[in-house]
Design goal:
With 455 residues, this protein is of the alpha/beta class. It has helices at 6-10, 23-34, 48-56, 86-93, 101-109, 124-137, 200-211, 227-232, 283-298, 303-311, 340-351, 367-372, 374-381, 405-409, 421-431, 448-453, and strands at 14-18, 38-42, 59-61, 74-77, 98-100, 114-119, 143-150, 155-158, 164-168, 183-186, 219-223, 239-243, 250-258, 261-268, 271-277, 321-325, 331-335, 358-362, 386-389, 416-417, 437-441.
Length: 455
Amino acid sequence: MAVSLQRYIQEQEIIHLIGIGGVSMSSLAELLLSQGVHVTGSDRQESAVTERLERLGARITYAHLPENVDGAALVIRTAAVHDDNFEVIRARERGIPVIERAEAWGALMADYDNVVCLAGTHGKTTSTSMMTMIALEAGLDPTVMVGSYLPAIGGTLRIGGHGCFIAESCEYCNSFLSFRPTIAVVLNVEEDHLDFFKDIDDIVASFRRFCALVPEDGLVVANADDPNAVRSVRDAKRVVTFGESERADVRAVDVTSESGYYRFTVLAHGRFYAEIQLSVPGRHNMMNALACCAAAAFLGVPGEVAARGLGGFTGSSRRFQVMGKTAAGAVVADDYAHHPSEMEATLRTARQMGFRKIFCAFQPHTYSRTKALFDDFVAALKLCDRAVLAPIYAAREKNTIGITSAELAAQVPGAAALNTFDEIAATLAQEAGEGDLILTMGAGDINTVCAKLLR
């Protein structure tokens, strides 16, 4: 049964958010605050994000205490908060409804005319950012929810009109099944999050249910070059495909690349749509741009407008983000890649950019992913000249498997597994020089190595 937030918003009741400091939860809190809702929240520690929310009017407690929910009419929890949380227990004892973050986002989406939900194993943040740039250029005044800092909107949330909502949509724990897409974009579908999904068939089934949420007058956009994406849209009502193959409805032709930056012509259903020059490197970003062109064309955005929006996108936080140079002259960049396919795409892109040597400081993310995709991680790490591995970032897991980064390093020629970020920074600073690239890579806190290298 679909959740509605309208009563809480109209009556300006208190809504309490457990885990309010997270990227998606903080954006949700800010959007609720903008609509006059009294927002309270809790988190483990203070941050720049929570300080901003407090300035906007949120009342935040930096501990998970039962009394935090007293007086709330509704409780929203992040996916990381479980039934044994003190606040969840108290809310249920008091008869206060408790919903998950994705359900709240879905309820808010119901108030928008067009809801573009961008999903896939990889490329969600970048594609959502690209789609945002197109919508801004087209004057659509979009409301945006994206998973990484986007300079054009000054953060991860933009509060716009009710004509267009652009949302990054994650499949983990089936979160995106609570959303209300009128346009669903499936970028790619691969094995991942195997701590939740059983196998690739289970993942495809989830994406298929996501596509089924689109109404008859809506659109599903899918990657024609990805077999599992094609499987995912098999039962969708209206589908437009994108890709490089001739069978794609929206495809790239006359493709050229200079130092990893792509220029191409977009054909939509055999007709010229746009001439694109990207300002972010990599063939994978050409695919992301094609997906956005397919969605933009459906929204009636002229090709030249889409081209300006895409050309104006210079990247978002932690997506091949150049941080500076070391004292020895090596370029330091940070990337969020934590799946072998993402790592391969990033490292192949770096190889096209003319660096002398590529050093990769990689922090594996979760024990289950490292174990399940072990051989693929090994193959991806072999694409750099020197791999230096940090200990596995546990995130939500405990190491019941007994796997370590040292096991990965042992399979990659020349690789090393080090115990601390200080050791990693010292090693890279000593070995990398002028003309080299140091790429910190992972979804944990490996990016903090960048600051150590730039001192």
